[in-house]
From TrEMBL:
Keywords on record: DNA-binding, Transcription, Transcription regulation
Cell division recorded as keyword: no
Superkingdom of source: Bacteria
Membership in a protein family: Belongs to the purine/pyrimidine phosphoribosyltransferase family. PurR subfamily.
GO molecular function term, any single one: DNA binding
UniProt protein name: Pur operon repressor
Organism for this UniProt entry: Paenibacillus piri
Length: 275
């Protein structure tokens, strides 16, 4: 690559780091890429690190030694996240979102890239300290959030199917009890989708009782996998007890009145002290 002026190099380096989160990049990569001395690259990275921290974009970690380099860890502050989620809560409280059976319409929100991007960044921040191999979700509505989260963690996504598909090859299937209607349902995962003993982050868009998430946990036992965390965009507060004990929620549906069409949505447990 041709030699760039420092201003141009800073812009290009920043973009390079933003598109490669949680990836260790040796200083020689930048030195060769920009035909610059390592000392100059180190000075540039110090400037980028300072801006990232001041603007709340994340951390730029430096690892010393022959195998060292820099690693960008995307993060967003809880204060900024809370402000964003409060706006989402107001959108979710619109009366026309109430569906038969007490369900909530969220597909329009799930279809907005900016919202998905922010939600994914929040989950990536919450679980950044966990040692995770894959992000898992069940088809279909949780898929966009799972991919948004995985993009900031730089991890692959594994999708659990409701029915085994021929194109998936050999699969492991289990029956589980749906928490909302107590019906026995089936979920399956291709044997090729994930290695055994993987460390998994489960992401879902909505959790009422937690039957689907609990089913995914049971399915993961067949792969000898370890659940490192569970992230839920919206949880229902209308149930006395969830089947899943440890999870992080960004919003909580605390009350729904189908007659008056009043909905109350508040920030989730991620914003409580100690979570």
């Amino acid at each position: 690559m041709k030699k760039l002026k420092r201003s141009a190099r800073l812009v290009e380096m920043t973009q390079y780091l933003l598109f490669r989160p949680h990836t260790l990049i040796p200083l020689t990569t930048f030195a060769d890429r920009y035909n610059s001395a390592k000392s100059s690259i180190s000075e540039d990275l110090a400037i980028i690190k300072e801006v990232f921290e001041e603007e709340g974009l994340g951390d730029l970690q430096t690892l010393a030694g022959a195998a060292g380099g820099v690693k960008f860890i995307p993060k967003v502050s809880k204060a900024a996240s809370l402000m964003f989620i409060q706006g989402i809560c107001k959108q979710l409280e619109q009366p026309e979102r109430i569906l038969p059976g007490g369900y909530m319409y969220m597909s329009d929100i799930m279809g907005q890239p900016f919202i998905l991007n922010e939600v994914g960044k929040m989950f990536a921040t919450a679980f950044s300290s966990k040692d995770i191999d894959v992000v898992m979700t069940v088809e279909t509505k949780g898929i966009p959030i799972a991919y948004a989260t995985a993009s900031f963690l730089n991890l692959p996504v594994v999708i659990v199917r409701r029915d085994n598909k021929v194109t998936e090859g050999s699969a492991v299937s289990i029956n589980y009890v749906s928490g909302s209607n107590k019906r026995i349902q089936t979920m399956s995962l291709s044997r090729r989708a994930m290695k055994e003993e993987s460390r998994v982050l489960i992401i879902d868009d909505f959790m009422r009782v937690g039957g689907t998430v609990h089913g995914m946990m049971d399915l993961l036992k067949e792969f000898k996998a370890t659940v490192k965390g569970v992230g839920v965009f919206v949880e229902s507060g209308e149930v006395e007890e969830h089947l899943v004990e440890e999870y992080i929620s960004l919003a909580k549906l605390s009350a729904v009145d189908p007659k008056t069409k009043q909905i109350t949505v508040v920030p989730g447990n991620y914003f409580y002290d100690g979570v």
